[in-house]
Amino acid sequence: MTKHIKKGRAVNVDFSEVFNKVPHVAEVKYTADLHCEENNQQHRTDEITTKRLIIRRGQTFQISVQVDRDEYIIDHNNILFTAETGSKPSEVFQTKGMFQLRSIDRRRWSGAVVSSTGTTLVLTAFPPPNAKIGRYTLSLLNPLEHQILKYRLGEFILLFNPWCREDEVFLDSEERRQEYVLNEDGIIYNGTCHQINIRSWYFGQFEENIVDICLMILDKSIKYQKNPREDCMRRNDPVYVSRVVTAMINSADDRGVLAGKWSEPYTGGEYPWSWNGSVAILRQWYKGGYQPVRYGQCWVFAAVACTVLRCLGIPSRVVTNYNSAHDMNCNLLIEEEIDEYGRMLGEHVWNFHVWVESWMARNDLKPGYNGWQVLDPTPQEKSEGIYCCGPAPVNAIKEGVMEVKYDIPFVFAEVNGDVVTWTRCRDGKKVKRSVESQRVGKYVSTKGCGNNDREDITSNYKHPEGSQKERAIFIEAQFRNQLERVQEEKFNVHMKIDNSVNHGSDIDAIVNISNRSLERRVCNLHFNAQILKYTGRPVKQVMALSMNDVVVEGNEVTTVPIKVPFRKFGNYLENHQLIKLIVLAADERTNDNALAVEHVTVVKPSVTVNILGNAILKRELAAEIIFHNPLSEPLFDCVFTVEGVGLIDGMRKIRVPEIKANRSIRSVCQFIPSKAGLRKLMVDFDCNKIKDVKGFKNITVQCL
Length: 704
Known about the structure:
It contains 14 helices and 39 strands. By secondary structure, it is α+β, with helices and mostly antiparallel strands. The longest helix is centred in the middle third of the chain and has 15 residues, at 298-312.
């Protein structure tokens, strides 16, 4: 055994057989050609760069080694290679691989000779499918007279490999690998279940230096800072890596990428809805000394996480859940309270919530939980002491298997919790008014594979609403006895509305009070309209109306029309907000009351983008941008922000001082495409009255 290495680290290797064959030779110098362009193309990383070696585990790569002395012949039988990663590389921790050139062994680091011509050696090297991902140093060890000379050949980056069957992130579909690993363009769904909106997003996982930033995210995590050696040892496991990424995208308890904020003012940062892609956020975090970028909300957290995970090689997609619940009591129930005047006192149902699904095997669990896993980087609740969520197997969520790691109860409640509504009386007594078992978890949506259509994946998360199987799973999953159901009352109130209205339009509601008894009822009617944030929190009461002595004859229905003028709520609208309408009818004689709740989405106007002419690489092209002001008053301080990777360098702003009431405006933006292929031109419109109006156009840029 020897521990003496000149110009290198000490290692414990038995070179006794090698030393017996090696004569004394003066020290030589080795140089290597890592064949970055060819290797990166074969490993599908050439979109990142062809100037550095970036490869995927479980797949061979080829390099050439040359010696600087013509009289010296490389004896491939007597040299070894090392691939080292992380802090204090070690064979024991499997952060160091050593191999001779014998044959490819798919269980470990190995190599084989392709050709040998004296001073030049061409070899194939193989990183095993369970190798640690990260930055590596490749070295050559040459034993000479009881000393080992170590030559540094170069560096490379190793990523997960969804194309390798033995890799835990293997995805058995080329179409899905193209979508969930290689596609840099995406669509994120928002709005409400009544009005599903889309926003374009540029993930940009292959943009310059993004891979370095993604690896730095791992290095800045709490786990790495506490124990670098152990953290690097676990970087072969996509479950572990994805959990670290999820924690690091938010900055709630570490030096994460994004700071979250859900209310005005957004001073010192960007409005969350002003972001159109992940690249600017990741670069700002990196260049800013790893200070959190301000500000993000759920779709921003999820989109940036998707970029990082795809960059590292883990197939990922962004998922939106409508009517997403936040279980505060860990009992799978979401409780709301409304006072005697119809004012909501608290709610924990978001209009929508966005998370990530990542594809991986769950070798840490019993069979049946491989495949899509929920990862939620939005900081809501702590998991094992830090703000992260998942990976939670979607199969376990559907079947209500609460004990499976990680965070199944929380995600289960988001898609399948029951909403219990209480009314609070003057004396403080609470009365259960309704239990809604089918309100939560609507239209779980993601971008279609290979197209821009919305794919509804609700059935992946739960059995059909109201079915015997769905109810049985919910009851079994609850941490207490079956919920007491509220019997239908003879005194009811219902509300008919259009669940979406155009920006600038009034809301018309028809309230029907039903009396299913024989006796006449005289009731007081309280109507309340409140603006909610998309997280469900009430922020503004825009209208309150009370009507006394409303008569409802026995077995009759009394109809009351109510109008909420746009002027009452138009100035208070922000992004992704709902207007919640609440009607409470109270019979003063019997103390009976009846409740009806509806939600209205205000639909923003749109930006139309038309391309004028044919898109040719490096030739000037023009886009026509059209916007119509739907309001009966002018809009001021209007700004169109135009951007598109491969089309426009950075962002271009078009400022318009005023758009008159009920008038349209047309503007032309000229640019020169710098990259061929399918590109996306994105336009954002903001003004004093309306913000975050989106438009986009897909453009296929052709080469000459």
